[in-house]
Design brief:
Layout: H1 2-9, H2 14-37, H3 52-75, H4 77-81, H5 87-107, H6 115-173
Helix pairs in contact: 2-5, 3-5, 3-6
């Protein structure tokens, strides 16, 4: 089993692989934050308000490509570069691994998503969400109005009882 592990991941321990994964994720996070902060919210191919579902559906093939490209670059790093893989290499791989996939997404149609279709689905989901929010708000307003009506009826009923007591006391005193 250790020979299989060595063939798949190279001559690294589990601890080294976890450390490299950590540094890869840091590099990837830097790339991701740079990319998402530069998105064009005015474009008709992207929602104005950030949406995780849209982001995932638009990029899942790209991230699968990122994982595969990063694995290949990591696994064959020593053969290509001639020196051992290190922590800085892991950060660099995180920075360029998704860059390679982003470039491929722009050039190979099968990796990218159909933005028009996604925007149609997103718009429909957003409309359903808005309708649900409106319905929830209407129900809340109706509940508030019903509670206010009950309170007003109680106040009037209490007032009538109080007035009746006053009138009854005055009649007794006469």
């Amino acid at each position: 089993m250790s020979e299989f592990f060595k063939t798949i991941f190279g001559d690294y321990s589990i601890v080294q692989l976890c450390g490299y994964l950590w540094f890869f994720l840091i590099g990837y996070a830097i790339y991701f934050l740079t990319e998402t902060s530069g998105r064009n919210v005015q474009s008709s191919a992207t929602p104005v308000k950030w949406n995780w579902k849209f982001w995932f559906m638009d990029n899942w093939k790209r991230y699968l490509t990122t994982i595969l490209c990063s694995y290949v670059l990591f696994r064959f790093y020593i053969e290509v570069c001639g020196h051992p893989f290190g922590n800085f290499d892991a950060v660099s791989l995180g920075l360029i691994g998704d860059g390679i996939a982003a470039t491929l997404k722009g050039r190979i149609k099968a990796i990218g998503a159909d933005r028009q279709k996604l925007m149609t689905v997103y718009a429909a989901d957003e409309l359903k969400s808005d309708q649900k929010n409106t319905a929830d708000e209407l129900k809340l307003n109706q509940d508030s109005a019903a509670d206010e009506l009950k309170n007003n009826q109680k106040i009037v009923a209490d007032g009538v009882k109080s007035d009746n007591k006053i009138i009854a006391n005055e009649l007794k005193n006469q």
